[in-house]
Amino acid sequence: MPFPEGTPRTGESRLSVNPFYGPANPLGDMAEAPPTHRLPDPPMAPATAYQLVRDELMLDGNARLNLATFVTTWMEPQAGVLMAECRDKNMIDKDEYPRTAELERRCVAMLADLWNAPDPSSAVGCSTTGSSEACMLAGMALKRRWAKRNADRYPAARPNLIMGVNVQVCWEKFCNFWEVEARLVPMEGERFHLDPQAAAELCDENTIGVVGILGSTFDGSYEPIADLCAALDGLQERTGLDVPVHVDGASGAMVAPFLDEDLVWDFRLPRVASINTSGHKYGLVFPGVGWALWRDAQALPEELVFRVNYLGGDMPTFALNFSRPGAQVVAQYYTFLRLGRQGYRAVQQAARDVAKELAGRVEAFGDFRLLTRGEDLPVFAFTTAPDVKAYDVFDVSRRLRESGWLVPAYTFPANREDLSVLRVVCRNGFSADLAELLSQDLERLLPELRKQPRPLTEDKGAATSFHH
């Protein structure tokens, strides 16, 4: 890893150590401060090492006040204890840790049932290190199925994947790493996600699939998965092209089943071949765990499943990563068991209620225009009203940070690069009381912002805190 700019490369940069951090004889044991960019020569007391690291981490933001991230920042103490007890278990050692493997299998079956798989008992799926890995696996399956159908033309023909320009960056990585052409449906006007008909028009004989997002990270809205499937049904009737759909439900796949039960987006749609979600987002588990599920065994090519003899057992695996802790999978099973459908419904409804109430308060200030209101994901995005000239969303984000709030400001992608917004993610743990405090802090700042001569942020690209 390269040194940060301005960091001495000779190792003379050192950490300052309070003598009281040392053991019985602090002056003798801590006579020399440890270096920061090379291994120190002698060891140090564990309490000293702990305190040094802890002191530096105090400069991080408060995770509970981070309204940029979708990732879970609070769990019950019992879940934390379970995770600590399982952190030394390697998920890949299924023969050594058969009960952990069984809990993973149960989670897959529960998700298959939740997402209305044709036969949940025979569902094909796995845990992953997050939705990014899950998306990679789903994309690989789409590409391999297309390649088998087009063996006479591949690899001469270049495959493509259709998606909205609002997709998470992991899909751009997939297309880059696996040499797939990314065909992006742009935003238009007040449509901030994929248009089903436009997606169908981009498909051809080299299309491996279309990605639909159930919960866009840009504004929290659901893409119309049923309409997308209908448009692709029409395409097949006209041209014979049979294009599968993958649903990236990183957030929404753990919200819609509980709050939007009449919304048809999952395996009830025959064209949906696979779904992923992030257990560490609205699945309510600390990072990092994701899930990838396929409609049936035919949707996941057998040649992508590796069967290896490892530590005395025959183990099928189709994850990209090998060694990883079992703690997050155990925590996911704990949360499923702990909450059940009714508990998840209550938690997600509370988050949506907070989002809608806070969005209403922001709108009532008169300085902002809402793009979304927390009616899909418990997330809303807003920009400054047309008559606001003294400040912009980047000024608001910067000033809120002074009170500890991390509210991202960012510019939308191609075709709507003129639009810059703030986005608030309401998660379990962001209570109505905290929302009230955020509203009060914003109200307190507005008179000062209105007095500015102009927006003060020079470099909008550097100002944004939106990276996920």
Walk me through this protein's architecture.
The protein is of the alpha/beta class and 468 residues long. It contains 13 helices and 13 strands. Strand 4 (207-213), helix 8 (225-239) and strand 5 (245-248) form a beta-alpha-beta unit. The longest helix is centred in the C-terminal third of the chain and has 38 residues, at 327-364. The mean pLDDT is 90.
Notable features of this structure?
13 helices, 36% helix, seven-stranded mixed β-sheet, alpha/beta, globular
Helix content: 25-40%
Q: Unreliable runs, pLDDT <50, ≥5 residues?
A: none
Class of secondary structure makeup = alpha/beta
- Rg of Cα set: 25 Å
Task: Give the biggest sheet.
Answer: 7 strands, mixed
- Please tell me what the overall shape is: globular
Our measurement of the CA-to-CA distance between the termini, rounded to an integer number of angstroms, reads 22 Å
Beta content? 5-15%
Number of DSSP helices?
A: 13
Compressed to H and E, one letter per element, the order equals HHHHEHEHEHEHEHEEEEHEEHEEHH
Number of strands: 13
Average pLDDT confidence is: 90
Looking across the biggest beta sheet, what order are the strands in?
A: 1-7-6-5-4-2-3
Topology:
Layout: H1 26-29, H2 46-57, H3 77-86, H4 98-114, E1 124-128, H5 131-149, E2 160-164, H6 169-177, E3 181-185, H7 196-202, E4 207-213, H8 225-239, E5 245-248, H9 256-259, E6 272-278, E7 290-294, E8 306-310, E9 313-317, H10 327-364, E10 368-370, E11 379-384, H11 393-401, E12 409-411, E13 420-425, H12 432-450, H13 460-463
Parallel strand pairs: 2-3, 2-4, 4-5, 5-6
Antiparallel strand pairs: 1-7, 6-7, 8-9, 10-11, 11-13, 12-13
